[in-house]
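Q: Structure tokens for this one, please.
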Amino acid sequence: MNRNPGYFSNQFGRPLTRRSALKGGALAAAAVLFGKPLGWASTDTPAPLPRPKARAVIQIWLAGGPSHLDTFDPKPEAGYDYCGPFNKPIQTNVNGMVINELLPELAKQADKYSIIRGMTHGSNSHETAAYMVQTGHDSSDRLVYPSMGAVVSLLRGYNAGYRGLVPPYIILTEPLGRFSEDGFLGPQYKAFATGGDPTKQPFAVQGIVAEGISTRRQGERRDLMHNLDELGSALKDDTRLVDFKQSEAGAYDMILGERAKIFDLVEEGQGMREWYGLNRFGQSCLVARRLIERGVLFVTINYGGWDTHKQNFQAMRQKLPELDKGMAALIQDLKTRGLLDSTIVWCGGEFGRTPKVMWEEPWNGGRGHWGKVFSHVVAGGGFRGGIVVGASDAKGEELKERPVYPWDLIGSMHELLGIDPDGTFPRIADGTVRITQAATGDIKSGGRLKEIM
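A: Here is the predicted structure, written as tokens:
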């Protein structure tokens, strides 16, 4: 235990100075004094923002961390102990860009996305790595920063007069779970997690669509409740009940109105559903497209199962075809509908996996965690396609060129969305809390992704 009275421990077990503690105290005090969630809209005139190229983000979160060698940075020349059975990467429609052989549909779309092979942060811990990749902040600060989705919800959503049918930040289908996505902003900016399974009919969205209860029955329940509400009938003109009635009307609009229809994939037809893939990931991609069409700003598809410590290659033979079909359909569909230019598609996990395969018991061909170098993919929203950024070495073990840190990537996406990455949160600790991490001291930066912006 650290007994130095000048330090405390943050959630990641790192030392915390008195200065950081005071900053955190200021945040808590602000919440009490203003009576609002941290990050509520400022009445001050904000500084002019960069002209946005993107309006929305679809994040495909490969929870657990996919192997870069088995996806977008194949290394067949490294030998069997590194590439395993995946020794025949395929050429994409961009000359010189190759990807895993189980991604043929994505190979046809490579001119629309870029691969970042120089992602790095050095952490092999799920919690710390996920936090950095999701927030664009190093984990050494005491503050728990909000995820990018929550920041977009605040600055491009509620502070900008968002009036969508559903909340601006949605997760399909379960929360990420590694940290609190809303951070110090508070629950108002937490993602709405749908729950349910989009492959089923109906897609039982938590609080909106009830499995086994028809729309007609929901309406009959509402009518019965109103008939039994003697107090409401007696005080029907009382102004004190106005807010209650408005809240009730809004809730039922979510259940019986246009909002519930957003999640009804029957409207898409069987052919469209099959194109995306009749599995949870493919149907989540289809739901994400529907949400973006209807004004939602940030959708995270939480696609788990990539933490392949054991039998990695067996898992990849199931996961990669799903990823290939759903993600390729999403990119092509957005392009066809004229939505790709204004929608960033961002795919990746918290880190990569050990380049050298663990063939021994009990792993039987598994891969461990690897934060030194890994890959992400970005498309649309101002990102150019057909480009590879950065590189790992011959065995995928070390960064060879062009580092891209989480704050470099998230800062680039913020810039495309018209959010100043170097700006600060409104009304938070006297405007001293940055939206993305600054390169200071031991914290490095490779710079924004200007080569693809």
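A few notes: Residues 171 and 193 are 5 Å apart (CA to CA). The two ends are 47 Å apart (CA to CA).
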